Amino acid sequence: MSATDVNTAGNGRRRPARQRLLEAAARRFYADGVAATGIDTITAEAGVAKMSLYNNFSSKADLVRAYLDARHEEWLGLYRARLEAADGPREGVLAVFDAYADHAAFAYEHGFRGCGLLNAAAELPAGDEGRAVVRAHKEEVEQLIAGHLERLLPDRPGEAHATAEHLSFLLEGAMARAGLEGDGDRVQHARSMAAALLDRL
């Protein structure tokens, strides 16, 4: 893909600098890591001047937080699309797993490297705001699972929440292994395990 293809919209108009910077950062942070990716690399890939970056983001840390927020929203979009086709709370739980599998199937530059949020969090120091963003995402995922389970088990709220925690651990463990192995097979296996567990409730 040429620089022109990357930096123009479908109508041929040049896309806003903020969008190009965020997309370039997303590619580089996921492929190469947050610490290894410098501002010069991002601005060169985005095709903008360094001053343009600081006109849109106060610092690299601000850009990292925007990347984390954008990746979270990207996953939510995948989840909502899966949820539209879900028939009932059981399928709603599995839609969470399917959205993770969809994210794993993206055409990443160096292949699938696991959860982009956790990868970034592992590089950030304790107390960094970015880690709080990642934690909030993971908590939201567990809450989504819990919400479906509450509808599936309306008279067993304790079991619903315990099962949600169990499934979130299963999902995160599968993502960790999938990232090491470079594909989403472990996530698909985790989905099958989750489906079997749900059938036993």
Give a short synopsis of this structure:
With 201 residues, the protein is mainly α.
* Integer average pLDDT: 92
Binned strand content: under 5%
Task: Specify Rg, calculated over alpha carbons.
Answer: 19 Å
Secondary-structure arrangement, i.e. CATH architecture of the largest domain: Orthogonal Bundle
Q: What is the CATH C-level name of the largest domain?
A: Mainly Alpha
Low-confidence region ranges: 1-6
Quickly give the structural class.
mainly alpha
**What's the overall geometry?**
elongated
N→C terminal distance: 49 Å
> What is the fold-level CATH name, i.e. the topology of the largest domain?
Tetracycline Repressor, domain 2
What is the helix content?
Answer: over 70%
Number of domains: 2
- Separate helix tally: 10
Please, what is the CATH homologous superfamily of the largest domain? Tetracycline Repressor, domain 2
Order of helices and strands: HHHHHHHHHH
DSSP E strands, number: 0
Instruction: Report the biggest beta sheet as strand number plus sense, adding barrel if it closes.
Output: none
